[in-house]
Here is the input.
Amino acid sequence: MAPTEVPDQAVRALLHRWFPGEAVTFTRMTSGGSTPVYRVEREAQVAYLRLAEHPGEVRGGEVRAHELAIRAGMHVPEIVRWEADPPEIDRSAALTAAMPGILLGEYSGDVLPAAIEAGRQLARLNAIPVTGWGWVDHARDDGGLVAEHTARSTWAGEYLAAVETVAGSAVLPSISVPPLRDAVTRWANRTAGAQSFLAHGDFDGSHIHVDAITGDYQGIIDLGEIRGADRAYDLGHALIHHRPERLIAQGMIAGYRETVPVDDGEIRLQAIAIATRALAINIGREPNAYRAMLADRLAQSLVVSG
Here is the structure.
């Protein structure tokens, strides 16, 4: 479901109440897709206003995730201001500090050192426990994160259903369907235990900042897709979304393994499950480059996993 927009005058009224007497300007960001984000400038300072996607929605879990990540020693934007129910708009609003540098995916130099450090940091995020599976719904009064599904099997069922959507389309060759069913079923039947962990949910070079000159790691942005998941979930996402020749995913995995043992087979099954669900969501839309990329990477992963 696409996010519903908020009138500019409502955003302006909120910012003027938060910063009375200051000259404040804002611009709606067009990159990304799900969370409404605005670049906010005031007195030569830049911050980002993140709104919930839909009327009545409260993103307290996302704000709490920032706090937990910082407590774990991660470099993520600090929350400058937060309201669950601001009177000017019909959903929660959070203002985050800006992260210095540029995106790792835009850096033309050696990406491996920053990717390794990002993997180390990711291991810290993925160590934060979540109650339940799937999208993080809210934070309890004691600060613990709670996801939408109580059972892993319910969450995994969404990915099994995605297999049938993909299988019923022509997006993959018919020869790929049996190994696809087998791989996602094996992933869904994993005995991961009763505990899920915090996943970034969209972890790749478009959410990692590095110094524009040196390429040194700066931090991770955008916790708008957080969920309770298996420990290797984010590594699977990175594996499916990065070209092997850039070594970004490989660097992340290497850095992650410095503290958390995870094998290639587990990461690959995660990647296949993630790509299948993303592809199923994309089916029915106009053909696009993202769908073609997913289909190509998924087919390659099935050959390797087989």
